[in-house]
Design brief:
Layout (H helix, E strand, L loop, with lengths): L6 E4 L2 E4 L10 H5 L3 E2 L2 E5 L5 E4 L1 H14 L8 H14 L5 E9 L13 E8 L9 H4 L1 E5 L20 H13 L4 E5 L5 E4 L3 E6 L2 E4 L9 H12 L4 E3 L4 H5 L3 E6 L3 E8 L2 E2 L7 H14 L10 E4 L2
Parallel strand pairs: 8-9, 8-15, 12-13
Antiparallel strand pairs: 1-2, 1-7, 3-6, 4-5, 4-6, 5-17, 6-7, 9-10, 11-12, 11-14, 14-15, 15-16
């Protein structure tokens, strides 16, 4: 359950949580043509607070809106500040941040006409997305019967609300079948991503991840790619099949919500030792050092604020 905060930033104003409402004929509610981000703020080891790669997230949010050809009435700097203001007013030293750009009510029909483009930002406390134990023990996943979007069916580089119907169906199927998460294949049958995470596999010390051709370019995924170079590791971006995952030594998801979550099983086949492997653990350790403000080299990834 989402834990209520006091205020939500809505069209330039901070309003009480229960008053951040829309009309039932809101266009995006009916047709799914909106864009959003998932962003995370952490409490650092020294007691300060910081949002991880806030500017990059807002840049991707606006890029997504541009792909949908929306004119957003706020600049990147204004939305960055709005995120910080919402964290501050809610007195949250650590939180999940959800900006949403959507089409308001007015014309009802597939074409949105001149309906207003509206923006809201909500913040609330949130722990480990797939459970605290998952970060160590890993999770069980299944290959979904639902295929990831083809690049000309949906705009796969936009973090678009409607794209996630695909994810909802895959996640519901996986949970109903007793798994934590789904692994989705692309339209050619190659491994793509999870319902809301990017995917990495490790075999004989070699790390691979699907190329950006058909997957959303995750901020955490990018962070892992950069970290790998510093750690002397090479990550190959290439297509691979699910049976390669079966015989992998390690596999893990990355994402703002999932952070770095190891995978212990795919389709009832144990992956490696059945828990977080050594390379996954190294990435976890370095990642959490960064978001907790313990690695000064990556201080530029942290947008600090005071509650």
């Amino acid at each position: 359950m989402v834990q209520k905060s006091e205020k939500i930033w809505f069209d330039g104003k901070l309003v009480p949580w229960d008053e951040a409402n829309v009309h039932v004929l809101t266009h995006t509610l009916h047709y799914g043509a909106g864009v959003f981000e998932g962003i995370r703020a952490y409490q650092c080891t020294d007691g300060s607070s910081a949002v991880f790669r806030l500017e990059e997230h807002i840049e991707r949010l606006l890029d997504s809106a541009h792909i949908l050809n929306y004119t957003v009435p706020y600049t990147q700097d204004e939305l960055v500040q709005a995120c910080v203001d919402t964290l501050k007013v809610n007195k949250l030293p650590a939180a999940y941040i959800r900006p949403l750009i959507f089409v308001g009510d007015g014309v009802m029909g597939v074409h949105p006409g001149d309906n207003p483009i509206r923006v809201c930002i909500a913040t609330w406390p949130w722990g480990a997305y797939l459970g605290a134990e998952a970060l160590e023990k890993g999770i069980r996943i299944k290959t979904s019967t639902f295929t990831r979007h083809h690049v000309n069916v949906m705009m796969t580089k936009a973090k678009c609300c409607g794209n996630y119907v695909n994810s909802v169906l895959a996640k519901m199927e996986a949970v109903a079948d007793g798994y934590h998460e789904a692994l989705m294949l692309d339209t050619h049958g190659y491994v793509s991503e999870g319902s809301g995470e990017n995917f990495f596999v490790v075999r004989h010390g070699e790390i691979e991840t699907p190329p950006l051709t058909t997957v959303l370019g995750g901020i955490t995924r990018d962070s892992i790619m950069i970290l790998a170079k510093e750690m002397g590791l090479t990550i190959k971006e290439q297509f691979f099949t699910r049976d390669k995952v079966y015989i992998a030594d390690e596999a893990f998801f990355t994402g703002t919500a999932a952070e770095i979550t190891p995978i212990r099983e795919l389709d009832r086949r144990q992956i490696g030792e059945g828990h977080a492997g050594p390379i996954t653990k190294r990435f976890q350790q370095e990642f959490f050092k960064i978001v907790k403000g313990e690695n000064p080299k990556y201080r530029h990834w942290l947008h600090q604020y005071a509650v």
